[in-house]
Amino acid sequence: MFSFILYKHLTLILSLILLGGITMLSATSIYDFTMLSLDGKAVKLDSYKGKVLLIVNTASKCGFTKQYDGLQELYELYKNDGLVILGFPANNFLHQEPGSNQEILNFCRLSYGVTFPMFEKISVAGKDIHPLYKYLTDKKANPKFGGKISWNFNKFLISKEGRIINRFGSATVPFDKHVINAIEEALK
Predict the structure, then answer these.
(1) What tens digit of pLDDT does each residue of 123-182 get?
(2) Which of 19, 62, 141, 180 is catalytic?
(3) Which residues face 86 on adjacent strands?
(4) Which range of residues forms the domain containing residue 32?
(5) What is this structure's pTM?
(6) Domain count, the chain
(7) Distance of CA 143 to the CA centre of its chain
């Protein structure tokens, strides 16, 4: 019985490591994480090496939800140049993302025609913050752009080398001139 319990715990630990549950302290870039897509597939973020990434925490019932339109438009405009937008639904702010992963996927596709990669719902703030967001917001590792997520639709711009090179708040729309300038500079 003891060996079975030990086996189950070791299996759980290994699964967490393989699915991005590594500790923030062991992560040296976003490429150290593996995340689950909304349809349940494991995606190693190192598969995006050489691409410019815009990582966004999203929600379906927020005043900023209409930014899905701009994010999709931005993705279509720059994807052939190497931009990938990664959406991470989160229910941290006033329960504005209550749906299941399947409901979120359906909502994004049907309501906004989202084709950029969307990932399973995670926590982006608080005691249960996902290690990816713990890494992105860490002030010691990322003094220039670190800090807590303030609301839905915060945006992190990641260089082709996997470094955080800019951050934009919720009120900054995808086609804001600062976002466009930063993306175009990163794509050079």
Answers:
(1) 999 999 999 999 999 999 889 999 999 999 999 999 999 999 999 999 999 999 999 999
(2) 62
(3) 55
(4) 2-187
(5) 0.86
(6) 1
(7) 19
